[in-house]
């Protein structure tokens, strides 16, 4: 016990973070069901590949000029005026003092569009029988309290990042006025958003499907009881 405690005390914050992720995504539930449905080795490969290749590629694509046209698309612009009002006040010519050559609005519109596309992809995958089956298996076989806890944590992180980056920049302005370089922090806060959005979207899919199944079963039971009572 003493050796294990010393090992835990000597772990760095990064090692503790990876230990937490391992506990969340690697620990199987009943029947060996995992939250993401992949063995640990494959999940590590997918995560590292997305970080080393996917995120830099997305960053490069976000610099393409066609995002200016996407940002002016009427339905998307109307949606963003509600969910991301901080960006609507920017012009495409705006440049932050910390990043004088960086097209900030274009980058943020591209980031929002990619995040929204991730959520749309999660919704579309619900039409696949295998995806629905796995989500319901996680809801049934995994510890229900842990599933709800992981969903709440992912929602808190995602909504917090979204609020700071796209909804209200008062916190970034406060950091800037305090002598920090908030403008330089902005791209680094946006970079992990696709991964956070993918995790949050996946957990929302599991909780949404599981809640719907539980509620529908209760409604069917109540309907049967009411029919029997009428007879």
Question: Layout of SSEs?
Answer:
Layout lengths: L1 H8 L3 H13 L14 H22 L4 H6 L2 H10 L1 H4 L15 H21 L4 H13 L2 H24 L2 H8 L4 H9 L2 H38 L1
Helix pairs in contact: 7-12, 8-12, 9-12
Poorly predicted spans = 1-9, 11-17
**Major sheet size, sense and barrel closure:** none
Q: Please provide the ordered H/E string of secondary-structure elements.
A: HHHHHHHHHHHH
Q: Provide a count of the helices.
A: 12
> On the 0-100 scale, what is the average pLDDT?
76
Radius of gyration of CA atoms, rounded to a whole number: 22 Å
Distance between the termini: 64 Å
Structural class comes to mainly alpha
Helix percent band: over 70%
Number of strand segments = 0
Characterization of this structure:
It is a single chain. The chain is mostly helical. The protein has a domain of 142 residues. Helices cover 76% and strands 0% of the residues. α9 crosses α12. The longest helix is centred in the last third of the chain and has 38 residues. The chain is elongated.
Question: Which short descriptors sum up this protein?
Answer:
mainly alpha, 12 helices
Task: Write a short abstract of this structure.
This protein has helices at 2-9, 13-25, 40-61, 66-71, 74-83, 85-88, 104-124, 129-141, 144-167, 170-177, 182-190, 193-230.
């Amino acid at each position: 016990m003493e050796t294990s405690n010393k090992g835990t005390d000597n772990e760095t914050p990064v090692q503790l973070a990876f230990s937490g992720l391992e506990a969340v995504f690697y620990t199987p539930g009943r029947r060996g069901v995992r939250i993401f449905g992949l063995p640990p080795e494959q999940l590590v490969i997918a995560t590292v590949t997305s970080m080393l290749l996917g995120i830099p590629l997305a960053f490069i694509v976000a610099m393409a000029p066609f995002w200016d046209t996407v940002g002016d698309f009427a339905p998307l612009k109307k949606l963003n005026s509600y969910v991301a009002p901080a960006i609507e006040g920017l012009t495409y010519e705006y440049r932050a003092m910390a990043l004088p050559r960086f097209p900030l609005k274009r980058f943020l519109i591209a980031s929002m569009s990619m995040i929204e596309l991730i959520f749309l992809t999660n919704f579309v995958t619900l039409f696949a029988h295998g995806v629905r089956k796995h989500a319901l298996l996680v809801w049934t076989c995994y510890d229900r309290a842990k599933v709800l806890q992981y969903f709440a944590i992912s929602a808190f992180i995602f909504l917090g990042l979204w609020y700071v980056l796209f909804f209200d920049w008062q916190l970034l302005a406060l950091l800037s006025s305090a002598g920090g370089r908030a403008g330089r922090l902005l791209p680094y806060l946006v970079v992990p958003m696709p991964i956070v959005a993918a995790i949050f979207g996946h957990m929302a899919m599991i909780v949404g499907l599981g809640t719907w199944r539980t509620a529908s079963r209760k409604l069917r039971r109540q309907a049967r009881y009411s029919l029997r009572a009428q007879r």
